[in-house]
Amino acid sequence: MGVLDILKQSNGLPAKYKNLTELEMVARIQTIKEKLGEELYLPGHHYQKDEVIQFADDTGDSLKLAQLSAENAQAKYIVFCGVHFMAETADILSSEEQIVVLPDMRAGCSMADMADIYQTEKAWKILQDAFGDTILPLTYVNSTASIKSFVGKNGGATVTSSNAKAMVDWALEQKERILFLPDQHLGRNTAHNLGIPLEQMAVWDPIANELEYDGPWEDVRIILWKGHCSVHEKFTLENIAQVREEMPGVKVLVHPECTFEVVQASDENGSTKKIIDTIESAPAGSSWAIGTEMNLVNRLIQTHPDKNIVSLNPNMCPCLTMNRIDLPHLLWALESIVEGNVINQIKVDAETAHFAKVALERMLEKSI
């Protein structure tokens, strides 16, 4: 499906849904959930709005939801409350009979869009010519199905922020170098945690179509795709300095999609799951400044009133694409299922799905 097709489809929310009250939508969604029962599985990513997450059968990060979607064989419909690449993953891992729906097709991921298959194939040829058969590709799950498929075809695997360290370690046992797509910050922070110096990391610029590296190329071990998360990159050293001044004794906890400098200056860093687990196990009265998506931070503030929790950047907005999923679109998607007219189905073609599944299964085998 092309961009214009997605935009046409995403703008098709019937006017009747825009005029409903929140109470009406909540009641109708609950009724449909009860009617469909086990035929419906509704996973919700941690970054979703509270109005949506209240209906989730399971909440989690990318790895957990990928695993749970694969396990829910009894569900005929998987209505994925997350973003496009997550729904693609659910379709790849689920059976042919299951139908995956994304309530709003505009719910994408700017990071995933920073690496398309044409750029990647062009880069791979240049890098193969330069380094020979010494590179194994890894892709963060925040990537399109076509990128996952490319990685699967070339012996690599997907990674999440939960298992990136283990997967990079595994990849470097297979080949001398890795190409890490599409988030340079997660790749850099993970490799550094494994003891690889910054001097052995290069950056591939897909726009300029060139490798950014000052030293001799034979020293390169990590090739980082020049992509980033538009939310996590906005946390800064200035944010950390300010919160430490305003909240003496505060602990700074950030996601590894943040820049290297921010991660190094924080007290702790880790995946969404680690952030949640850290706050849940923290002592009452402790103070935390969290550098991750605002919906999750606000939920942690609400659920842990015994702790002093703030966003590392008080001016941060929630992830705009995650927030595309709302009650009107969720209700529309569910009522369309009941009416037998499924909208916004996510369907990955067979060849792409096959090799993407290879990459995903390599990861899942090492993460269970």
Structure, explained:
This protein has three domains: 3-109 and 321-348, NadA-like (Rossmann fold, 3-Layer(aba) Sandwich); 112-229, Rossmann fold, CATH 3.40.50.10800; 232-311, NadA-like (Rossmann fold, 3-Layer(aba) Sandwich). The strands form four sheets. The protein has a six-stranded mixed β-sheet, with helices on both faces. It has a four-stranded parallel β-sheet with strand order 13-12-14-15, with helices on both faces. The protein contains 16 helices and 15 strands. 43% of the residues lie in helices and 15% in strands.
The CATH topology label of the largest domain is Rossmann fold
Strands of the widest sheet, in order across it, are 7-6-8-11-9-10
Give start-end ranges of low-pLDDT stretches. 1-10
H/I helix tally: 16
Task: Count the E strands.
Answer: 15
| Percent of residues in helices | 40-55%
Biggest sheet details: 6 strands, mixed
Kindly report the name of the CATH homologous superfamily of the largest domain: NadA-like
Radius of gyration: 21 Å
Mean pLDDT metric: 92
Instruction: Kindly give the count of domains.
Output: 3
By helix and strand content, what is the structural category? alpha/beta
CATH top-level class of the largest domain: Alpha Beta
Please tell me the CATH architecture of the largest domain by its name. Answer: 3-Layer(aba) Sandwich
Dominant shape: globular
